[in-house]
Amino acid sequence: MNTYLLSACALLALGTGTAFAHVTLETQEAAVGSTYKAILRVPHGCAGKATTAVRVQIPEGVISVKPMPKAGWTLQVKKGKYEKSYQLYDETVTSGAREVDWSGGSLPDEFYDEFDFRGTLAVDLPAGQTLYFPVVQECDGAAERWIEIPAAGQDEDALEYPAPGLKLAPKK
Amino acid sequence: MSAASLLRTVCTTGRPAICLLAAIVLFAAIAAPSPAFAHAALITTEPADGAVLAQNPAQFSLTFSEPASPLVLTLVQPDGTPVPLTSFRLNGQTIEIDNPQTLGSGTHVLSWRVISADGHPVGGSVLFSIGAPSAAPAVSEAVDRGLRSAIWIGKVFLYIGLFIGVGGAFAIAWLAKGGHSGRRIVIAAILCGLVAAPLSLGLQGLDALGAPFARLAQPGVWQAGLGTSFGWTVLVALVALGLGLLSLVGPRGGAKLFALAGLAGVGAALAASGHASAAEPQWLTRPMVFLHGAGIAFWAGALAPLGLAMRRKPVEAAPFLRRFSQAILPVVAVLAATGIVLAVIQVQAPAALLESTYGRLLLIKLALLFFLFTLAVINRWKLTGPAEAGETEVQRRLCRSIGIEMLIVLAIFGVAAGWRFTPPPRALAIAAVQPASVHIHTPKAMADLSITPGHVGPVAASIVIMTGDFGPLDASQVTLVLSKPDSGIEPIKRAATKRGDGTWRVDDLVVPVPGRWTARLDILISDFEIVKIEAPIDIRP
Fold first, then answer.
1. Does B524 lie at the interface with A, CB-CB under 8 angstroms?
2. Could you give the CA distance from residue B394 to residue B398 in angstroms, rounded to a whole number?
3. DSSP A19
4. Among the listed residues B414, B513, B407, the one whose alpha carbon sits nearest the alpha carbon of residue B459
5. What are the angstrom distances between the C-alpha of B411 and each of B150, B212, B305, B460?
6. Which position among B33, B118, B227, B245 has the lowest Cβ density within 10 Å, counted as fewest Cβ atoms?
7. Is B33 helix (H, G, I), strand (E, B) or coil?
8. Does B397 reach chain A within 8 Å, measured CB to CB?
């Protein structure tokens, strides 16, 4: 256990220094078929500039999405058709939120904030794989795009702007 | 060795040290390194070098820095089988070649050998793949040293025939006025040229086809040689040599006319091919080469008859010497003026004198010319007057001096013949601005990236992007990232701007060091979708 901790610490210390600057999900593992509360952590702005908008793309298979409003930010949900239909309780769902935007706010570089939404992870999502939530962080005249998804076999640490990922666990 | 024996034949002073010096210079000219740069530089090809094509191309095209015509075009298939490409069209500076067959998948080599107006064959190859790259078939482009030496010797002999032979015939007809001194040497030189000229044509044919010596007897080789611009040089040279010979052995009445026409033929033969004649602007370079060639023939041709006349019949030689010394000043002025103009056009920047083989040969030639001019000035202003007045000691000195001049002239011929193998800085400059290009192919996206010029310093990058299946790719943003981890250089990141023609460009870019860089393109396809593709790209020093 100790060696595990030590090596984890070493990894953190030696790993990419920018790791803490990434936009990430607070909870990075959830079971398929469950309701998931996504907390997007935005640790700082784009190269010193204040964040003015956070936009997240909802991946296929995350249904019944409801974002949490934030004071000082305009919340907008872009809806669209899903690629296939999903069964939610007794209901067949074919469309819903594809993108959630919080805009018009100001999150200075020296502060930290979270942007939340909840959704249901469809039962037919592949357990064991990672689901990615690409995020575009906009600042005044600049943008950081946390949208890189590792190719098969690619090390996630090698990515400059990785999309926040959620590991899918088997249905409970 | 034949160069040395040639020297012995023409040597009039019999001084071994000087003969040796000349031989060393000649040898240095042979041994000078000859870079494999193109004389007519290849600018673009279709398909591009390294391209991966989805389907069989209907035709290929090669675009050069100046109009060029193909000598040998071969398509080497992935299994190594060569297919001759015989159907092509010339379209300005572009050669369009029909693809005769459906190509299988794998890497093919389009091997080309072309000739441009300078009459010097150049070759190269373009690799492209159908479907996916495979191991490239082997195609070699080796330098045949034996053939090169033979071409060089042939060229020196041709110069001897034209300048000493035809020039000598002119001097005998116009300046000696009835004197026959040096007639035998001049005839020998003309015969030399008459043998060397056709032989050079065959050697040129071998070089044109990239063929070995063993094929010299084949008619195709001679046809290839005749088909190049050097063919004209040989034909005109043969006429000039014939006119020179006719003026010596033909009817006396026509001697002067034949000699004059022969001298003009020397200029015309040189203007028909060669680097200098091929340079732009042609309206300037060709007349310059003509005057330069005729001037050399006038000067070099007069040396042997004059020297021999002075040694054998000093009294008869006096008017010959007077006429020569009167005429030589304007001739040298024309030689110098035309030489300077041509050198400026060819070398362009003074630095190229030292940096290129062509420039170094020019420097050797200038050094030899310096000695030659020094001797000529001494002869003209110190020795000519007393010699004309009949001072025998001075006449003997003048004889010796003329002998040395002859040797220096021969050495200059050797150096000038060495230019046959070196592209002038003008052509190198065109080659230097060629872009470094790379084709990046991934299932998600493809890109053609070219960095112009492809060497260190300020450059501009041009990017064409496509989808993985050759469809249009409408990206909202393209970023070029150049990195060279082994040199400890942080990635250079530049956002590209989209041009009206659909290409993406990066202008404010400086590549600091040469070598193999990694070029990455970050292509933002939509708000939430990015594709990053990368490939190595070689940047020249």
1. yes
2. 6
3. G
4. B513
5. 17, 28, 19, 45
6. B33
7. coil
8. no
CA B159 to chain centre: 16
Is B491 in CB contact (< 8 Å) with chain A?
Answer: no
- CA dist., res. A36 & res. A32, Å (int): 9
Residue A136 contacts B, CB cutoff 8 Å: yes
Mutate to test the interface with A, among B522, B528, B529, B531 (most CBs of A within 10 A): B528
Among residues B64, B111, B69, B118, the alpha carbon closest in space to that of B89 is found at B69
Q: Express each pLDDT in A46-97 by its tens digit.
A: 878 899 999 999 999 999 999 999 999 999 999 999 999 998 888 899 999 9
The letter for the amino acid at B125 is: S
Closest alpha carbon to B112 in B100, B99, B97, B101: B97
- CB–CB contact B528 A134 (8 Å): yes
Please count the other Cβ atoms lying within 10 Å of the Cβ belonging to residue B267.
23
C-beta separation of B271 from B236 below 8 A? no
Give ipTM to 2 decimals.
0.77
Alpha carbon distances (Å) from B296 to A33, B238, B289, B409: 96, 18, 10, 9
- Cα gap B379→B398, rounded to integer Å: 6
**Rounded to a whole number, what is the distance in Å from the CA of B524 to chain A's nearest CA?**
10
In a 3-state reduction of DSSP, which class is residue A136?
A: strand
Q: What are phi and psi of B95, to 5 degrees?
A: -105, 120
* B80 dihedral zone (left: phi>0; alpha: psi -120 to 50; beta): left
The reported pTM is 0.61
The pLDDT score that the predictor gives to residue B66 is 75
A137–chain B Cβ distance below 8 A for any pair: no
> B478-489: per-residue pLDDT in tens?
999 988 877 777
pLDDT tens per residue, range B497-536: 998 888 899 988 888 888 888 899 999 988 888 888 888 8
Q: What is the nearest CA distance from B134 to chain A, expressed in angstroms?
A: 24
Decide if B528 and A148 are in contact by the 8 Å CB cutoff. no
| Token digits of residue B267 | 């200029």
A54 interfacial to chain B (CB closer than 8 Å): no
C-alpha B303/C-alpha B65 separation (Å) is 41
In sequence order, the 6+-apart residues with CB closer than 8 A to the CB of B339 are: B292
Q: Do the chains contact at B530 and A145, CB–CB below 8 Å?
A: yes
Sign of the torsion formed by the C-alpha atoms of B275, B277, B283 and B289:
positive
The reply to whether A57 touches chain B by the CB within 8 Å rule is: yes
CA distance A135 to chain B (A): 7
Tell me the chain A residues in contact with residue B527 when contact means C-beta distances shorter than 8 Å: 55, 57, 136, 145, 147
Contact at CB, A148 and B529, closer than 8 angstroms: no
Q: Is 50 exceeded by the pLDDT of residue B128? A: yes
Q: How far is CA A12 from CA A4, A16, A18, A127, in A?
A: 12, 8, 11, 27
The count of C-alpha atoms lying within 13 angstroms of the C-alpha of B55, restricted to the half-sphere facing its C-beta, is 3
Dist. CA B326–CA B386, nearest whole Å: 15
Side chain identity, residue B270: L
Total residues found in chain A within this entry: 172
pLDDT score of B91? 84
| Chain B positions in Cβ-Cβ contact with residue A147 (cut-off 8 Å) | 527-530
- Cα separation, A84 vs A71, whole angstroms: 34
pLDDT at site B2: 38
Tokens of B541: 């020093």
CB within 8 Å: B530 and A147: yes
Question: B89 in helix, strand or coil?
Answer: strand
